[in-house]
Amino acid sequence: MEWIRPVHRLAFLVMLGHAAAAESMKPDFFPVVTQFSPVPSGAGWKGEEGPLSQELLRDTMDNIRAHGFTGIEAPTHRPAEEQAFILEYAASKGMLVSYHAGALEGFERTAPPDVCVYSPKYADAVRARAMIALEPLKTIPNLYNVFTYQDEPFHWGPQSFGYNAEVKDEFQKRYEYDLPADMDSIRDDPRKWLDVINFRAGYFPDGWRQVYRIIKDINPDFKVTLTHDSHNTFGAGYSSHSEIAIDDVVHWGGDFADLFVFDIYPYMMFDFRFGRPSQLQKPRISQTHYSFAQMRSLTQACEKDLGFWVGTYNPAWFEHFLCPDLAAMHWSEREMSLTAVAQGANYLLTGYKIPVDERHWESFGAGLRLLQKAGGRMLSAPKLKARACMLFPRTQYVQLQQEYFNVGLSFELFLRAFGELDVIHENQVTDDTLGGYDILVLFDVELLPESVAGYIARFVHNGGTVIADCVPRLNAWKEPMAILEEVFGVTETNADRIRRAGHWVPYKSQDPIWANRPENHPDETVYATDALRANVLGQPLDIKVVSPRSCTVTRGRVLAETSSGLPAVVRRDVREGRAFLLGFCLQDTYFQMWEDDNPAAREQLRNLMNAIVRESGIRPHVYSSNADIEAAVRANDREGFLFVINHEAREPGVTVQLRDLAFEIGQIINLEDARPVAFTNEEGAVVLKLSAPLGEVLLLNILPKGGPDT
Hints:
The chain is α/β, with parallel strands linked by helices. The protein has three domains: 9-380, Glycosidases (TIM Barrel), CATH 3.20.20; 388-616, 3-Layer(aba) Sandwich (Rossmann fold), CATH 3.40.50; 622-704, Golgi alpha-mannosidase II (Immunoglobulin-like). It is built from 22 helices and 30 strands. An eight-stranded parallel β-barrel has the order 1-2-3-4-5-6-7-8, surrounded by four helices. Helix 3 crosses helix 4 and helix 18 crosses helix 21 (586-595). The longest helix has 18 residues, at 599-616. The radius of gyration is 26 Å and the shape is globular.
């Protein structure tokens, strides 16, 4: 196996040590790590009790390596002599080690830390913990990364807030008034509420930055790693585990770790949607794509690595969810691991342990072996920046105290319609270029800081395209704001949508339950609908829209009306740019089409979004003709990798378009069998006609024209 080579310890540490040399000295394999655990097939440990011989340990490690893994987790939770053998044997085969040192920052979700991060004693307390926790690393060969922080940090409500003297002094220093005595006293004061929430959210990174400096001072030779939460930090905190809307990954920043790993469980468990969409998780990949886009927004802006915990068919994590239906989805680990890499991950770690089912294990291995055919070259080929972005409205999330997670459905629809989509956080909107994006989408955004709204307005004036399903009409202090109503040419807009609450937990070995669902939860069965029968931009529509949103059109042009006479699609050309407004809630309408099992309506809505985008003249780098088959590209100026992943399509046929890479495409190779893939050039795009059956993943190597193989 060419992708696993013995690596001298010193060379390996030099490779990992400093950022300046990191790009040129990356591993020549893709980092995929697992825990030392029983294997369900092939040679090795099958889970029997008692000591394990060196031969059995070696056979198990060889089995793990043969399935495409290039790293092992430590501690291994085996006796000391066995662990030493496992790690040394892994090092002799060039495998890396991921280590868990425990939480060094001293944080808790439900209580303030014992030593305040604003106390001069905090750094001393951290250093004392770090010296003890990092001491074992001296004996770990081929150490790659270390988890040094609390797993999935978030504030579990106001009970995690401290009111000691150091906290009060720091607040006074920053905001020049006294810290309010409690949250209830300022709920009706938007300015103080925002100040306090920002201050409390900043408590974690204020501590992490101190921890990071101390770790690097003690040992700079590994990637400091933080696992981000699967939902609370992506707009799903309010009325969930966080209780209030406070945390998000981009607002926190990234200058306190080298590698950010996150996890979400769309198949093995539940994905934390709210209300009825948590019972019908369709399309099942939506929250994964949405969350990954936010993690890319963080890691790309901060130039950090992105990783992913891959859920496996193992009762260590999913005891109450395992069932025959899930067992039959033997491709799920392969699908999710390759989806993560397609979305930008440069590191994978199983969470938790090797699958206990033989078919899951072998399918997982097939996917990882395919990934390792690209190997370390993948690490130098980032996911291409999309030409469209969706805005994450943090101030709205904090001020309105409403979940902003089910909107992942709208994200997924636009992704399927256009072909690629990133997330831009409102904190990243600092001028009218919007980070170089050509298209901005605003879904369920009704409140923005005026500075952000002003930049968006100028973005449109300068030639950008903005597409929205409601208009931000409130500023950061919840006061009326007309900046963007003028851009869209409307007034008196609203943002009605179905209010949803609670997470459905679909246990299999016990009765399913509602979690985090208040007693006075909203009635989701009561909602408004309308009909849209029209031809818009050449696309025939005969669909039911859910949560229609009225407005008064001033300078906009109505392209279609609903049956009740409400504007359904409004367009306004503004100087060089364009603004499109939909007169209905996109997430509610799209989900209803899944609930009604109406693929024809879903395709009409997708075609409408696609037609709107075509009016802008902007084309994506990659586009899949089959909505349920993902196509994604990672590339540099020398080569690229095309992922084609069937998530839930019955029809395996798909046409993929590629355009505007950094080089002219000369050849495309299927890494599975090393055979060339036929393509044509049509209207500025390279076009491939492919077949990707359900559960299958294609990985194609894109090579430049004039290269050694073309």
